[in-house]
Design brief:
GNAT_dom, Detected protein of confused Function, Acyl_CoA_acyltransferase, alpha+beta, two-stranded antiparallel sheet, 9-stranded mixed beta sheet, disordered N terminus
Protein backbone atom coordinates (compact mmCIF):
# COMPACT_ATOMS: atom_id res chain seq x y z
CA UNK A 1 0.00 0.00 0.00
CA UNK A 2 1.60 3.24 -1.09
CA UNK A 3 0.98 6.59 0.46
CA UNK A 4 1.20 9.51 -1.93
CA UNK A 5 1.38 12.91 -0.36
CA UNK A 6 4.47 14.91 -0.87
CA UNK A 7 6.47 17.84 0.31
CA UNK A 8 4.57 21.01 -0.45
CA UNK A 9 5.24 21.64 -4.14
CA UNK A 10 2.40 23.36 -5.85
CA UNK A 11 -0.74 24.03 -3.99
CA UNK A 12 -2.83 23.18 -0.99
CA UNK A 13 -4.88 20.75 0.98
CA UNK A 14 -8.52 21.15 0.26
CA UNK A 15 -10.43 20.99 3.47
CA UNK A 16 -10.25 19.86 7.02
CA UNK A 17 -8.35 17.43 9.14
CA UNK A 18 -10.38 15.15 11.36
CA UNK A 19 -8.22 12.81 13.40
CA UNK A 20 -8.69 10.95 16.62
CA UNK A 21 -10.62 13.71 18.28
CA UNK A 22 -7.80 14.91 20.53
CA UNK A 23 -5.35 17.75 20.20
CA UNK A 24 -1.67 17.12 19.72
CA UNK A 25 1.43 18.85 18.49
CA UNK A 26 3.64 17.92 15.56
CA UNK A 27 7.19 18.81 14.65
CA UNK A 28 7.16 21.13 11.64
CA UNK A 29 9.65 22.94 9.47
CA UNK A 30 9.22 26.21 11.31
CA UNK A 31 10.03 24.64 14.66
CA UNK A 32 6.59 25.65 15.93
CA UNK A 33 4.04 23.07 17.11
CA UNK A 34 1.19 22.59 14.70
CA UNK A 35 -2.31 22.05 16.04
CA UNK A 36 -3.92 18.76 15.05
CA UNK A 37 -7.48 19.25 16.33
CA UNK A 38 -10.54 17.10 15.88
CA UNK A 39 -11.52 19.17 12.87
CA UNK A 40 -9.06 21.76 11.62
CA UNK A 41 -8.93 23.52 8.30
CA UNK A 42 -5.92 22.60 6.27
CA UNK A 43 -3.58 25.47 5.60
CA UNK A 44 -3.05 26.80 2.10
CA UNK A 45 0.48 26.64 0.78
CA UNK A 46 1.77 28.00 -2.50
CA UNK A 47 4.76 26.53 -4.29
CA UNK A 48 6.01 26.42 -7.80
CA UNK A 49 6.22 22.92 -9.21
CA UNK A 50 4.45 21.52 -12.21
CA UNK A 51 1.79 18.95 -11.41
CA UNK A 52 2.23 15.48 -12.77
CA UNK A 53 -0.32 14.47 -15.44
CA UNK A 54 -2.35 11.32 -14.92
CA UNK A 55 -4.14 8.79 -17.09
CA UNK A 56 -7.73 9.22 -15.95
CA UNK A 57 -8.78 5.95 -17.57
CA UNK A 58 -6.95 4.10 -14.78
CA UNK A 59 -8.30 6.29 -11.96
CA UNK A 60 -10.59 4.58 -9.44
CA UNK A 61 -12.68 6.47 -6.88
CA UNK A 62 -14.45 4.26 -4.35
CA UNK A 63 -15.22 3.67 -0.70
CA UNK A 64 -12.31 2.06 1.11
CA UNK A 65 -13.14 -1.32 2.59
CA UNK A 66 -9.78 -2.96 3.28
CA UNK A 67 -7.46 -2.02 6.14
CA UNK A 68 -4.50 -1.41 3.86
CA UNK A 69 -6.54 1.20 1.98
CA UNK A 70 -7.45 2.89 5.26
CA UNK A 71 -3.80 2.86 6.29
CA UNK A 72 -2.82 4.52 3.00
CA UNK A 73 -5.51 7.17 3.51
CA UNK A 74 -4.30 7.82 7.08
CA UNK A 75 -0.71 8.24 5.89
CA UNK A 76 -1.77 10.60 3.11
CA UNK A 77 -3.62 12.78 5.61
CA UNK A 78 -0.71 12.98 8.02
CA UNK A 79 1.64 14.02 5.23
CA UNK A 80 -0.88 16.49 3.81
CA UNK A 81 -1.91 18.21 7.04
CA UNK A 82 1.57 18.53 8.53
CA UNK A 83 4.78 20.12 7.32
CA UNK A 84 7.67 17.98 8.59
CA UNK A 85 11.38 18.68 8.58
CA UNK A 86 13.10 15.44 7.60
CA UNK A 87 16.20 16.27 9.63
CA UNK A 88 14.26 16.68 12.89
CA UNK A 89 15.21 14.19 15.59
CA UNK A 90 12.71 11.35 15.91
CA UNK A 91 10.59 12.59 12.99
CA UNK A 92 9.94 9.09 11.61
CA UNK A 93 8.69 7.90 15.00
CA UNK A 94 6.44 10.94 15.20
CA UNK A 95 5.03 10.34 11.72
CA UNK A 96 4.39 6.73 12.60
CA UNK A 97 2.63 7.73 15.80
CA UNK A 98 0.34 10.17 13.99
CA UNK A 99 -0.41 7.71 11.20
CA UNK A 100 -1.23 4.91 13.63
CA UNK A 101 -3.49 7.21 15.64
CA UNK A 102 -5.39 8.40 12.57
CA UNK A 103 -5.65 4.84 11.20
CA UNK A 104 -7.12 3.47 14.42
CA UNK A 105 -9.47 6.44 14.82
CA UNK A 106 -10.64 6.04 11.21
CA UNK A 107 -11.33 2.34 11.76
CA UNK A 108 -13.25 3.20 14.92
CA UNK A 109 -15.44 5.74 13.15
CA UNK A 110 -16.17 3.44 10.22
CA UNK A 111 -17.03 0.61 12.62
CA UNK A 112 -19.65 2.83 14.26
CA UNK A 113 -17.81 3.01 17.59
CA UNK A 114 -17.51 6.79 17.77
CA UNK A 115 -20.35 8.44 19.67
CA UNK A 116 -22.26 11.01 17.66
CA UNK A 117 -21.48 9.48 14.27
CA UNK A 118 -24.26 7.46 12.70
CA UNK A 119 -22.22 6.36 9.69
CA UNK A 120 -18.76 7.14 8.27
CA UNK A 121 -17.11 6.19 5.00
CA UNK A 122 -13.59 6.80 3.72
CA UNK A 123 -13.56 7.58 0.00
CA UNK A 124 -10.25 7.18 -1.85
CA UNK A 125 -9.01 8.05 -5.30
CA UNK A 126 -6.35 5.58 -6.45
CA UNK A 127 -4.01 5.12 -9.39
CA UNK A 128 -1.81 2.18 -10.45
CA UNK A 129 1.71 2.46 -9.10
CA UNK A 130 2.99 1.64 -12.58
CA UNK A 131 1.46 4.86 -13.94
CA UNK A 132 3.69 6.83 -11.61
CA UNK A 133 6.87 4.95 -12.53
CA UNK A 134 8.60 7.98 -14.04
CA UNK A 135 8.50 9.74 -10.69
CA UNK A 136 8.14 6.75 -8.39
CA UNK A 137 11.45 7.35 -6.63
CA UNK A 138 10.60 10.92 -5.68
CA UNK A 139 7.04 10.07 -4.75
CA UNK A 140 7.82 7.02 -2.68
CA UNK A 141 10.72 8.73 -0.93
CA UNK A 142 8.26 11.11 0.71
CA UNK A 143 5.89 8.30 1.57
CA UNK A 144 8.25 6.14 3.60
CA UNK A 145 7.31 5.49 7.20
CA UNK A 146 9.50 3.31 9.39
CA UNK A 147 6.52 1.29 10.50
CA UNK A 148 6.00 -1.40 13.07
CA UNK A 149 2.26 -1.15 13.55
CA UNK A 150 1.65 -3.01 16.79
CA UNK A 151 -1.95 -3.96 16.12
CA UNK A 152 -2.79 -7.65 15.96
CA UNK A 153 -5.21 -7.33 13.05
CA UNK A 154 -2.72 -5.49 10.84
CA UNK A 155 0.14 -6.70 8.73
CA UNK A 156 2.33 -3.68 8.13
CA UNK A 157 5.50 -5.16 9.64
CA UNK A 158 9.09 -4.28 8.85
CA UNK A 159 12.42 -4.76 10.53
CA UNK A 160 13.26 -2.37 13.33
CA UNK A 161 14.90 0.77 12.02
CA UNK A 162 14.02 0.11 8.39
CA UNK A 163 11.52 1.98 6.27
CA UNK A 164 8.73 0.43 4.25
CA UNK A 165 7.02 1.71 1.15
CA UNK A 166 3.29 1.57 1.83
CA UNK A 167 0.99 0.39 -0.95
CA UNK A 168 -2.02 -1.84 -1.38
CA UNK A 169 -2.88 -4.43 -3.98
CA UNK A 170 -6.21 -4.70 -5.81
CA UNK A 171 -6.84 -7.54 -8.25
CA UNK A 172 -3.13 -8.24 -8.41
CA UNK A 173 -2.22 -4.62 -9.14
CA UNK A 174 -0.29 -2.29 -6.85
CA UNK A 175 -2.22 0.95 -6.45
CA UNK A 176 -1.55 4.28 -4.77
CA UNK A 177 -4.00 6.40 -2.77
CA UNK A 178 -3.76 9.87 -4.32
CA UNK A 179 -6.83 11.52 -2.77
CA UNK A 180 -9.04 10.87 0.22
CA UNK A 181 -11.91 12.24 2.30
CA UNK A 182 -14.39 11.13 4.95
CA UNK A 183 -18.16 11.29 4.61
CA UNK A 184 -19.68 11.62 8.10
CA UNK A 185 -23.40 11.16 8.75
CA UNK A 186 -23.91 13.10 11.97
CA UNK A 187 -25.61 16.17 13.39
CA UNK A 188 -22.34 18.07 13.82
CA UNK A 189 -18.58 17.65 13.87
CA UNK A 190 -16.66 18.30 17.09
CA UNK A 191 -15.61 21.94 17.55
CA UNK A 192 -17.42 23.04 14.39
CA UNK A 193 -20.60 25.02 13.84
CA UNK A 194 -23.48 22.72 12.86
CA UNK A 195 -25.54 22.86 9.71
CA UNK A 196 -29.14 24.07 9.76
CA UNK A 197 -30.67 21.62 7.29
CA UNK A 198 -32.70 19.52 7.49
CA UNK A 199 -34.66 20.53 10.55
CA UNK A 200 -36.40 18.46 13.18
CA UNK A 201 -36.18 14.71 13.54
CA UNK A 202 -35.00 14.28 9.94
CA UNK A 203 -31.71 16.01 10.75
CA UNK A 204 -30.27 12.89 12.38
CA UNK A 205 -30.67 10.93 9.17
CA UNK A 206 -30.40 13.58 6.48
CA UNK A 207 -27.29 15.60 7.41
CA UNK A 208 -23.66 14.75 6.63
CA UNK A 209 -20.28 16.48 6.59
CA UNK A 210 -17.08 16.10 4.58
CA UNK A 211 -13.75 16.05 6.40
CA UNK A 212 -10.11 15.10 5.78
CA UNK A 213 -10.29 16.21 2.15
CA UNK A 214 -6.81 16.07 0.61
CA UNK A 215 -5.05 15.23 -2.64
CA UNK A 216 -1.39 14.31 -3.15
CA UNK A 217 0.21 17.65 -3.83
CA UNK A 218 2.20 16.38 -6.81
CA UNK A 219 -1.08 15.57 -8.55
CA UNK A 220 -3.02 18.78 -8.00
CA UNK A 221 -4.80 20.33 -10.97
CA UNK A 222 -5.82 16.92 -12.28
CA UNK A 223 -9.39 17.21 -11.00
CA UNK A 224 -8.89 14.66 -8.23
CA UNK A 225 -10.51 16.91 -5.63
CA UNK A 226 -13.64 17.19 -7.76
CA UNK A 227 -13.64 13.44 -8.28
CA UNK A 228 -13.68 12.49 -4.61
CA UNK A 229 -16.19 15.23 -3.72
CA UNK A 230 -18.45 14.07 -6.55
CA UNK A 231 -18.22 10.48 -5.32
CA UNK A 232 -19.09 11.61 -1.80
CA UNK A 233 -22.29 13.22 -3.09
CA UNK A 234 -23.24 9.98 -4.82
CA UNK A 235 -22.63 7.91 -1.68
CA UNK A 236 -24.49 10.46 0.45
CA UNK A 237 -27.51 10.16 -1.82
CA UNK A 238 -27.41 6.38 -1.48
CA UNK A 239 -27.43 6.78 2.31
CA UNK A 240 -30.51 8.98 2.15
CA UNK A 241 -28.58 12.17 2.94
CA UNK A 242 -30.35 15.32 1.77
CA UNK A 243 -27.97 18.01 3.05
CA UNK A 244 -24.19 17.85 2.76
CA UNK A 245 -21.81 20.29 4.50
CA UNK A 246 -18.14 21.14 4.58
CA UNK A 247 -16.15 23.56 6.76
CA UNK A 248 -13.31 25.53 5.21
CA UNK A 249 -10.98 28.23 6.49
CA UNK A 250 -11.88 31.71 5.27
CA UNK A 251 -8.39 32.22 3.82
CA UNK A 252 -8.22 28.87 2.01
CA UNK A 253 -9.10 30.14 -1.46
CA UNK A 254 -8.22 26.94 -3.39
CA UNK A 255 -10.48 24.89 -1.13
CA UNK A 256 -13.33 27.38 -1.37
CA UNK A 257 -13.00 27.39 -5.16
CA UNK A 258 -13.18 23.61 -5.25
CA UNK A 259 -16.38 23.47 -3.20
CA UNK A 260 -18.08 26.40 -4.90
CA UNK A 261 -17.38 24.87 -8.32
CA UNK A 262 -18.75 21.59 -6.95
CA UNK A 263 -22.06 23.31 -6.20
CA UNK A 264 -21.70 24.23 -2.52
CA UNK A 265 -23.01 27.58 -1.32
CA UNK A 266 -22.34 29.66 1.78
CA UNK A 267 -24.61 29.00 4.77
CA UNK A 268 -22.92 30.32 7.92
CA UNK A 269 -19.77 31.79 9.46
CA UNK A 270 -17.94 30.63 12.54
CA UNK A 271 -18.00 33.30 15.29
CA UNK A 272 -14.69 35.09 15.63
CA UNK A 273 -14.59 34.34 19.36
CA UNK A 274 -14.78 30.60 18.68
CA UNK A 275 -11.88 30.71 16.23
CA UNK A 276 -9.82 32.71 18.74
CA UNK A 277 -10.68 30.29 21.53
CA UNK A 278 -9.62 27.31 19.39
CA UNK A 279 -6.54 29.19 18.14
CA UNK A 280 -7.19 28.61 14.44
CA UNK A 281 -8.29 30.46 11.30
CA UNK A 282 -12.01 31.26 11.23
CA UNK A 283 -14.20 28.85 9.27
CA UNK A 284 -17.13 29.22 6.94
CA UNK A 285 -19.77 26.54 6.51
CA UNK A 286 -20.78 25.55 2.97
CA UNK A 287 -23.88 23.54 2.02
CA UNK A 288 -25.24 21.61 -0.92
CA UNK A 289 -28.51 19.75 -1.36
CA UNK A 290 -28.15 16.09 -2.34
CA UNK A 291 -30.74 14.23 -4.43
CA UNK A 292 -31.77 11.19 -2.43
CA UNK A 293 -31.31 7.94 -4.37
CA UNK A 294 -32.14 5.65 -1.45
CA UNK A 295 -35.50 4.04 -2.16
CA UNK A 296 -35.89 2.65 1.36
Amino acid sequence: MTLLSLPPPSSHCFSSSFSSGHRSSAVVTTGRPIRFPAVAAATTTHHHQQSLPIDRSSLAVAEAVEEDQLWAAACLRIRSFNDFQSSSFGIQDHKRYLAEREFLALKERIAGKREGFKRVSCINATLPLSQLSNSANDLCASCKIGCILRVSVCHYWTDTGKEQHIKFTSNGEDRVVVGTLDLNQCLWLPEEIPGRKPEGIEAEYGRAYLSNVCVARELHRNGLGYDIVSKSKTVAGEWGITDLYVHVAVDNEPAKNLYLKSGFIHENDEPAWQARFLDRPRRILLWIGVPCTNEL
